[in-house]
Amino acid sequence: MQKLATPSNRAQGRSLSKSTKYQASTATIDSSSESMMTAIDIANFNAFYGTFQALHDLNLKIPRQQVTAFIGPSGCGKSTLLKWCNRMNDIVPIAHATGSLKVGDRNILSRNTDVVDLRRQVGMVFQKANPFPKSIFDNVAYGARLHYKISRSELYELVEWSLKKAALWDEVKDRLKSSALGLSGGQQQRLCIARAIATGPEILLMDEPCSALDPASTARIEDLIFELRRQFTIVIVTHNMQQAARCSDRTAFFFEGKIVEEGATEDVFTRPQKQQTEDYVTGKFG
Amino acid sequence: MKDPINEPREYRNDARRKMFSSSFSVTCLLVSSLAIVVLATLLLSIFSTGGGWLSAEMLTASHRENNPEESGIGQAIIGSLVICTICGLAALPIGVGTAIFLEEFKPKNRFLRMLHGLVQLNINNLAGVPSIVYGILGLTAFVYMFGAFSPIRVNDQPDYEIGATYSYQTKTLGGNYVRFPATPKIQPFFEIKQPRQVSSSEGQPFKLNVVSATTDAAEYKDKLEETVILGTKAELTSHNGVESYTTQTLGGTTVFFKAEPTYSQFAKILEPLMVSDPEGNTFELNVLSKSDAIPTNPEVLSKSVFADSPDPTKRSSASIFRENSFFHMHLPFSKSVLSAGLTLALVILPIVIIASQEAIRGVPQTLREAAFGMGATRWQVVRSAVLPSAIPGIMTGAILAMSRAVGEAAPLLAVMGGVLGTTNHLSSLMDKTPVLPVTIFKWAGDENQGFEHLAAAAIIVLLAFLLLMNSVAIFIRYRYEKKLA
User: Fold this and answer.
1) Which residue of B104, B114, B365, B374 to mutate against A (max A Cβ within 10 Å)?
2) What is the predicted pLDDT for the residue at A5?
3) Which residues of A touch B370 (CB under 8 A)?
4) Cα–Cα distance, B366 to B130 (Å, whole number)
5) Residue A133 touches partner B, C-beta closer than 8 Å
6) ipTM score here?
7) What CATH code would you report for B54-142+333-484?
8) CA within 20 to 30 Å of B453's CA: A88, A139, B284, B400, which one?
C-alpha cells in the first residue's frame, strides 16, 4: 500500500491506477441496483445563510465507493453542500436548509438527527490540516476514544491500521508519542485523513484537501484518495480541475448555487453538455 | 488633478517632517522614563524606610500592641495565602465556566441571545466597579446572607452549624478545669447542683463532687490560691537559700514562709501570715477555720466544686466552651476568612472571565471544526480541543487576577473588619485572620513611628509576593507556548 516517494514511481502508479479505475466503476454500476449504490441522495435541496440563498433546488445522487468531485468557481456553494452532508453547518448559527438530504435511508436534515452518530459515519477532512496539539497517536485515537469502548491494545491496532491506510505509518511509526504539530503540511493532512477513517466512516468528505500543499504532497494525497476509494465513498471539493480529472469517478459542476452539469468525470471534462461547463473546464473563466 | 507622473508636485519640507518624527520619539522616551523614575522612587523610599526592619523574626511574629520591635506579619502572610487560595478556588471554576458558556454555548434562540448579550455587557461593566462596592456586596451576601438566617452571636449556637462541639467548663476547687457535654439547648452558663460525670482536660472521666458551700468557705471561693485550712502542715525546706516552710494552698499554689527560728521538720499554720509564692510575690495567707466545710485532700479538691449558693457571685457555674474542628462551618458565614475569600472571588471574577474569554477566542476555529467533524459533542469539543489550548491563557489571567486579590484591602476591611492579630492560629474557615494589605493599612496609620517602618517592610514582602506570582504567570505562558509550537 505504501508507495515510494520517488517521482517516477508515483507517476507510474497514477497512470496505472487511472486506466483500471474507469473499468471498475462502470462494471459496478451496471451490475447493481441504483438505490443500493447511492450513498448520498440529495433532492430539492436549498441552503441559506440568513436570508441569502446559497444553494438552489439541488438534485444529486452520490454513488457508493466512488470518488465524486465538486468543481466550480469560488462562492458557488460546493463547500456549503459538502458541509451539509455531515451537518457541519450547525456551527454557523444563521445557516439553515430545506429539502431532502439522505445518507443511507434517513433524511439527515430532520430535527431529530443524531449529528454525533452522523459525523461518525460521515468523516470530514478540511482545507487546512488541523491536527490537535497532541501526540500523533492521540490524534488518530481521538475519534475512537469518543465513540467506542476500546481496549488499549485494540486502540493501538486501530491507530496502526488507520496510519497504514493513510500511507503515513512508515514515516511516523517511531515517533507516535511526539507532537503532531511537528509533522510537515502534507504529513499533517494525511494524519487528518487517518484520524477521519479511524472511526470507520462510510463516507469521507474532503474540502479542498490539497489547496495548501505543495505538488509532491498533493500527489501523495491523490494517490491516497484513489486507494481509499475501494473502501469509502469519497466526496472531494476542489478548485484544481486537473485534480478532479485525475482522481474522481464522477464530477458535479456548480455555478452560482446550482448544479450546472453532473456525470462521469470523463464525460464532463471531454464531452460537456453545457456551454458554461465547457468554458470552465477549459479555463475560459473561474 | 495633476498627472502624478508627468507633472511632479512640490515636496513637503522633508527636514521638518523628519525632525518632528525624531522629536516625537524622544518625547515618548521621556514620558516612559518618567514612569520608571516614579517606580524607582517608590521602591527606593520603601526600601529605605522598611528595609532595615525586614528580618526572620518580623516574618514569623504576630502583631503586638504598641510594640513594633516585636511585631511581625506571620499571621498576615498565612491569612493572605489562605484567603487567596479560597478566592482562586471559588473564582476559577465559576469564571472559566462562565467564559465557556459565553464563548462556546452561544444560544440560537433570539431571546436567549439577548440574555447572553446582557450577561456579557454586565461582566464588562463589573470589571470597572471599585472593590469597596464588592466589600458591601460581600457583607450582604456572605456575612449576613441577606438576613435569611439568625445572626451569629458570641457564646450562642448558630442555627446551622457543623464541626463544632459544645461543652460546659468549670474550675474545680483544686484549680484544674473539667468539662462535660452541653445539653442540646445550650446556654452561656450552667449551674452545677448535683454530682455528675465529667472529664478532665486530658479526657479522663470521673465523677464531680459537689461540696456544700458554707458562708465562710464560699467567701474564699475565688481566693483558693491564697487560702489554707486551719492547722495545715508546712514542711521545712530550702527556698532561695533560706530555710523556709512550704505548703500548698487549696488552689494548688505552693507558698513559702520564713522558718524562724527552726524548731522542727513541720509547722502548723494557725493564723494568717505573710507568705511568698515561687515567683516572689508576697501576700497574706487566708486561714479557713471550718475545716469540715471543704475537703482538704488535694485529690478530692481537684474533683469537687461548690454547690449552688444563695449568693449568685459565689455560685459554682460552668461556662459554655466551644471546640472547633478544621471543617467548622456555620450559616451565615459571618465575618470570617471564607466570607473574605468569596468576596475577593467576586472582585476578580470579571477579570478571570474576560481573560478566559480572550484565551478561548484565541483557540483557532479549525480545532473546533476538527473535533466537531469527528463527531464530538459540544462538551467534548470544549474539553478535548478548546480547553487544552486555552489553559495557558486562562492560567495566566487567573494568576494575574489573584495577584490583584492579594493586594486588596478595602473589601476585606468590610467583610472581616480590621483584624491585626488573633490569639489563636487560623484553625477553620470561620475564623478571622489578619492579612497583609489590611495590616499595612492599619500600621501605616498608627501613631507609633515604628509601625510605619514595619508597614514599609510588609510592603516589600507583599511586592515580592506579587512579583513571584507574575513570574509564575510568565513562566506558564512561556512553557506552553513552547509546548504548543
Assistant:
1) B374
2) 36
3) 126, 130-132, 192, 195
4) 39
5) yes
6) 0.83
7) 1.10.3720.10
8) B400
